[in-house]
Amino acid sequence: MRxxxxxxxxxxxxxxxxxxxxxxxxxxxxLGLLPATxxxxxxxxxxxxxxxxxxxxxxxxxxxxxxxxEPSPYLAHRLDAAAELYREGRVEVVLVTGDNSRExxxxxxxxxxxxxxxxxxxxxxxxxxxFDTWDSCVRAxxxxxxxxxxLISQGFHIRRAVAxxxxxxxxxxGVGVDAVHDATWYYGGAREIFAxxxxxxxxxxxxxxxxxxxREPGVEQALARxxxxxx
Length: 231
Prior knowledge:
With about 230 residues, the chain is of the alpha/beta class. The chain has 7 helices and 8 strands. It has helices at about 15-45, 75-85, 105-115, 135-140, 155-165, 185-205, 220-225, and strands spanning about 45-50, 60, 65, 70, 95-100, 125-130, 150-155, 170-175. Helix 3 (about 105-115) links the parallel strand 5 (about 95-100) and strand 6.
């Protein structure tokens, strides 16, 4: 069977046609950049460092993959920042969220183990499933009753996290931790360009998380422990 010959697209021959093509391309670029612009505006001046972030009861750490069952280097940097905030008394409870969809892959559990090894008491850690950033923000608000939080992630992701949690009703400040500018970092930065579009749609249409679940008192109980010495 003979395949049809590939025909290269032709540019418009008239000046008006070329002008319309340029206008269409420019309009497409503007529309493509709108979600990223919204993300930067929504995050605004809410980005901080571990040294100057406002004191808040809860820190939220987003998952970033496991290597042989342990937090990846990127995730470890996020958890190190959370442990530092706890030790400095800037947060009382660390809420860790990630993928636990398989029996042999449990990000929240690995994150909890890492934090306890780095000085955060188990009673001050709450873990839950969050399969993307929007899900994590919505569940923090609706399931655990978090109204205000410090969010911890890499710099290329933290603006999206802040924008989405703000949209979900969580008053948020973001701490973007340092990361080596390796292939993963560049991939993450490029991915954010496309993820911004989904984030904007999530903020507008507010879909239900993949798994919502009943309300849980984990954060309230952990904060109650913070009011008295741990035994």
